Fold this sequence. Notes:
Layout: E1 4-5, E2 9-17, H1 19-24, E3 34-40, E4 42-43, E5 46-47, H2 57-69, E6 81-88, E7 94-96, H3 100-106, E8 113-120, E9 125-130, H4 136-145, E10 152-156, E11 162-165, E12 171-173, E13 177-184, E14 190-193, H5 209-215, E15 234-240, E16 243-250, E17 255-256, E18 265-276, E19 282-284, E20 288-291, E21 299-311
Antiparallel strand pairs: 1-20, 2-3, 3-6, 4-5, 6-13, 7-14, 8-11, 8-13, 9-10, 9-12, 15-16, 16-21, 17-21, 18-19, 18-20, 18-21
Amino acid sequence: MNTIQFKPIYQERVWGGRWLAGKFGRELPRANPVGESWEMVDRPEAQSVCIQTGQTLRELLQQHSAEIMGPLHDPSQPFPILVKWLDCSDRLSLQVHPTTKIAAELGGEPKTECWYLADTTADAALIVGLKHGVTRAQFEQAIEDEALEPLLHRFPVQPGESILLESGRLHAIDAGNLILEIQQNSDTTYRVYDWGRKGLDGKPRQLHVAQSLQSIDFEDFEPAVTPASGEKCESVLAECPQFRIRQQRLVEGDRFGPPKTREPMILSVVEGELSEGESRSVFAAGSNLLLPYAWDGELICKEPCTMLITDRFVDV
């Protein structure tokens, strides 16, 4: 079975821009700023469409579940991972995703995600967690006073770094970041603060303060990023119950084939270029591929390449 690639689904966001056009040469909608490109999604409100066949991801899983996901997969279950590019030309809202327990109480979905910083401006930063010693009472008072920023853990970032955000972790992406986000298949986000900003319609965006306060881990102080891996051939960027993400570097002529232990994988090209076997199918930087359980092909490095490999998201 061959690799599977999908058409991107572009999402307009007030904090977005045109970075995906400049970085990856993509043709974007011309109207409002594009903040997200959903690269791989299987949800009722959004379906990735296969470039090769025109089928949706849901249709592919219903018809070829064993070949794509392995013999133990229930074809009625959605694809468990959602892959996005985020163009954060402006700062995002301060937000949180609920844990499994809290999500059940609030009628939402848990969401653990990993951010890989593919590109940054010189002054780029992230906001993740609280400063040491901040209490819930101080946080609630700061919301009323509109003075939250001094309580938040904000730190500079650079390309190649990454950070895992498990459900319950308070976070915001500051301006100047191009991020590959690999996450649980969920779209539940509670905004606790939006810096006084208005949406594309000119109105303040909806906040979810009560739900956020119920979801935030108030013992999560000053988490650190995973540093860029330098010249290492392979390194683990994130590992959690929902998935594992490894970074692998290839040089021209290197080949990448199926793992010894069969399982589906997602391969994200963040630098360089790959081709599928000796064919003319070329996957440039920005590409995200689904490598099925039954994939028996080979990818060849055309120029020095950095890729992320997401696996362990399904039982096999």
